[in-house]
Each structure stands twice: as structure tokens, then as C-alpha cells.
């Protein structure tokens, strides 16, 4: 794991901690979108990161977080969807779609 992903993880943790301070669901959605924006800026600065699968994963993560924050889906279903997204990115056509032959 390189330095960029540690920065993204730190931004995600800080956003989650800030969501505990704010009690508005609209503010939670704005915080999730701000975390996605900052993550995009970090990824854009890194020349060695593949942007498409990285943003696909982070975008999916943000969509699930927004749906859970708005109460459209439950927390347990949100966790299962995130695990499915992670499994797809690891074993499906996510990060491993450019294998050498």
C-alpha cells in the first residue's frame, strides 16, 4: 500500500469521526461527497495509481455510505454490499482485469 492510499484512509476516518459530531443527514451526505472529492484529488496527484478502478471502488463506497446515511438501506445490508463490492474489485474485473498472459 502506498502513501496515497494511507492519506485516503486518513481522510475517510476523519470524515467518519466528523459525522459523529454533526447530527444532520444532509451534512452527512455532504461529508461523504467531500471525502470522495478529496480522495479524487489525492489519486489525481499520484501517477502510479490506475484512476478508473480506484474511483469506481471509491464511488461505490460513497454511494453505499450515502444510502445508509439517508436510511434507504440498513447498516447490515450496506456492509454486505460493501463486502460484495470489495470481492468484485479483488476477484472480478476490478483491479485484476489487466493480467499478463
Architecture overview:
The protein has 101 residues and is an all-alpha fold. It is built from four helices and no strands. It has helices spanning 3-21, 25-45, 51-70, 75-91. The longest helix is centred in the middle third of the chain and has 21 residues, at 25-45. The chain is globular. The chain starts with a helix and ends in a 10-residue tail after the last helix. The model has no long low-confidence stretch (mean pLDDT 88).
Shape assignment: globular
Helical/strand content category = mainly alpha
Got a strand count?
A: 0
* Main sheet overview: none
Instruction: Please give the radius of gyration in angstroms.
Output: 14 Å
* Average pLDDT level: 88
**Termini gap:** 25 Å
Summarize the structure.
The protein has about 100 residues and is mainly α. The protein has helices spanning about 5-20, 25-45, 50-70, 75-90.
List the helices and strands and how they pair.
Elements: H1 3-21, H2 25-45, H3 51-70, H4 75-91
Q: Which key phrases capture this entry?
A:
single chain, 101 residues, mainly alpha, 4 helices, 76% helix, 0% strand, globular
Amino acid at each position: 500500500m502506498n502513501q496515497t492510499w494511507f492519506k485516503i484512509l486518513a481522510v475517510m476516518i476523519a470524515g467518519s469521526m466528523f459525522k459523529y459530531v454533526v447530527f444532520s443527514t444532509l451534512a452527512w451526505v455532504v461529508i461523504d461527497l467531500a471525502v470522495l472529492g478529496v480522495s479524487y484529488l489525492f489519486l489525481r496527484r499520484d501517477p502510479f495509481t490506475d484512476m478508473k478502478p480506484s474511483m469506481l471502488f471509491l464511488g461505490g463506497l460513497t454511494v453505499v455510505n450515502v444510502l445508509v446515511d439517508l436510511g434507504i438501506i440498513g447498516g447490515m445490508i450496506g456492509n454486505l454490499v460493501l463486502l460484495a463490492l470489495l470481492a468484485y474489485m479483488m476477484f472480478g474485473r476490478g483491479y485484476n482485469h489487466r493480467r499478463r498472459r
